[in-house]
Amino acid sequence: MYYRDPDGNRMEFQVDCCANADEAHALMHSDGFAANPVGVDYDADALLAQYRNGAAESNLLAMPAGAPAQIPPEHGLL
User: Which residues are 40's β-sheet partners?
Assistant: First the structure.
């Protein structure tokens, strides 16, 4: 998640889905990660509503299906 705080600083938040180094290694060498290493766009308000309604942690942390999210131009990778 990217946003600018009230002082204009760019903020980035990330949630790691892996519990240990072996799981992280497996994820980063998977076909799914190769196809989409940046994640997808999502509706933060909908995710918050799911959390407030008691959704399971595994559902909240699962990457939804979708096209790769756009990398912000501020990252200088485009």
Answer: 68
Farthest-apart Cα atoms in the chain, separation: 39
DSSP string, the chain: -EEE-TTS-EEE------SSHHHHHHHHTSHHHHH-SS-B---HHHHHHHHHTT--HHHHHSPPSSSBPPPPGGGS--
Contact 40, 63 (CB under 8 A): yes
Q: pTM of the prediction?
A: 0.64
Contact 12, 3 (CB under 8 A): no
- Domain residue extents for the chain: 2-64
Q: Give the model confidence (pLDDT) of 20-67 as tens digits.
A: 889 889 988 999 888 888 888 888 899 999 999 999 998 888 878 888
